[in-house]
Amino acid sequence: MKLLLHDLSEKDAKKILPNLPKDMIVFSPKQNIHPCIGCFSCWFATPGYCIIKDDHCNLGEVLSKVEEVVIISKCVYGSYSPYIKNVLDRSISYILPVFEIRDNQIRHTPRYPNKISFSAHFYGEKITQEEKSIAQDLIEANCKNLNGSGSIIKFYEEKLPPKGIIL
């Protein structure tokens, strides 16, 4: 199963992603999301589940069931759009608050046994080489922090990504 995180309007999503696989979970800006408040309840009070009541409170559980996370985001200074950043901030319930050493770096211990691969499709006019480098480092770090198994990044130097992105 895959999780698609995108920041496209409904109209653009229908045009760019006309036929999504039936087993794909989709998170988009049309859903209700509040920012992470840093309370760490998803680690201690309600493990794996966020206490903020919105459409993303079960993100840790969702991540525990997917094999791949596909991100479609406008490239904003080498990072994600605000919606995508907000979703990824809320993903901390997927990991544990304790640390371990992986690949000679200190990382959060995984809460769930699955390994997620990441693919990111960044779009935007005039994406600089520096922004591309920052985005690549960011995806790599997100993948490692969430105990992922690898990442792929593509850039589309257009206002929107082209129709029919292969998911």
Radius of gyration over C-alpha positions, nearest whole angstrom: 16 Å
**Globular, elongated, flat, extended or rod-shaped: what is the shape?**
globular
Summarize the amount of helix as a percent range: 10-25%
Mean pLDDT: 94
Number of helical segments with 4 or more residues: 4
Order the strands across the largest sheet as they lie in space. Answer: 2-1-3-6-7
Order of helices and strands: EHEHEHEEEHE
How many DSSP E strands? Answer: 7
Ends apart, CA distance between termini? 12 Å
Largest sheet: 5 strands, parallel
The proportion of strand residues reads: 25-35%
Give me the secondary-structure category: alpha/beta
Give the low-confidence spans. none
Polypeptide structure, described:
The chain has a five-stranded parallel sheet, covered by helices on one side. The chain has a two-stranded antiparallel sheet with strand order 4-5. The chain has 167 residues and is of the alpha/beta class. It is 23% helix and 26% strand. It has four helices and seven strands, in the order βαβαβαβββαβ. The chain has helices at 10-16, 59-65, 82-89, 129-145; strands at residues 2-6, 24-27, 68-74, 95-102, 105-110, 117-123, 150-156. Helix 4 (129-145) links the parallel strand 6 and strand 7 (150-156).
